[in-house]
Amino acid sequence: MCLKDMHLPPSALSSSLRVGNVEIRNRVALAPMSGVTDLPFRMLAWRFGAGFVVTEMVASRELVGNAAESWARLKNSGIDPHIVQLAGREAHWMAEAAKIVEANGADIVDINMGCPAKKVTGGYSGSALMRDPDHALSLIEATVKAVRVPVTLKMRLGWDENSINAPLIARRAEEAGVQAITIHGRTRMQFYNGNADWDAIRAVRDVISIPLIANGDVDTIADAMEILRRSGADAVMLGRSCQGRPWHAGALAGAADEPAATEIAAIFVEHYAMMLDFYGPEIGLRHARKHVGWYLERFAPDLLTERKAEMLTSKDVKLVSDRVATAIARSGLEPARGEMAA
Prior knowledge:
Layout: H1 11-14, E1 17-19, E2 22-24, E3 28-30, H2 39-47, E4 58-59, H3 60-64, H4 68-74, E5 83-87, H5 91-103, E6 108-113, H6 118-121, H7 133-146, E7 151-156, H8 166-176, E8 180-184, H9 198-205, E9 212-215, H10 221-231, E10 235-238, H11 248-252, H12 261-279, H13 281-299, H14 305-313, H15 317-331, H16 337-341
Parallel strand pairs: 3-10, 4-5, 5-6, 6-7, 7-8, 8-9, 9-10
Antiparallel strand pairs: 1-2
Helix pairs in contact: 2-12, 5-7, 7-8, 8-9, 9-10, 12-13, 12-15, 13-14, 13-15
InterPro entries: Aldolase_TIM (IPR013785), DUS-like_FMN-bd (IPR035587), DUS_fam (IPR001269), DusB-like (IPR004652), tRNA-dHydroUridine_Synthase_C (IPR024036), tRNA_hU_synthase_CS (IPR018517)
Function: Catalyzes the synthesis of 5,6-dihydrouridine (D), a modified base found in the D-loop of most tRNAs, via the reduction of the C5-C6 double bond in target uridines.
Cofactor: FMN
């Protein structure tokens, strides 16, 4: 599909957007992903031009209780706006946590009602909240009342195909003071299976006047333009397509070029060092492994299995950094520029 055949111009991605009193520099965002969008990843994505980035979800009650992991997820380093996503199941803890993140520099507080993970929904948080809209609204209202900064909401289409209630919750959320809504075009029961339903997101657009952000299966410019057209959304959010590609959201927005293989190798080396510095060597190695795997899968797919296994398991920091970078540079692979310009 060529851009000239679409109803929306490419500038639909590069133009700014306002969420309450906060200006967003473009319309391609990096999704909050637990275990992925830590501070090093967000810093890179922001540097490469993502419109906005969101922290990993911060458990509200644990933050109020001074849990070290929650405070680590809250950290920021020059990213503007600083958007913190909170998760929880009780209005009191959501409100108290919102006050804390505002006091620690958050420009926007995002409410997680979309996570499908069993350990989250099993605690009646994340997308499980969509099963009880009245209770979900109590959390939303408490969070909005607790802070002066804009509050946004991220959710799915519904719990399952028999309970598509995102339009209902979105309308009530706007009435409660939410300033923007992100919809992942799947139900919770789909997890990440099948295809995201971009057309179903339009039902939310039809009932709200605040900015709508569409999420799910967006990889190329063609995807981004098509999800905007079909959903009526104002912006797009990328998730899994950015794994191993922290520059990808910025590239789709036209804020950065897709890097060549040698540049990707250098980005990996920097990213790897940032993770080790942020977490410390021992914990950093564990966190880095999945990222090593994503870089290799994308940019050195023909690497011998035993070589890949060594890079994923070695505790020799220099060995891993050097060999992964060499594998990427030697592969000569780089993101398909045809896809980017399609």
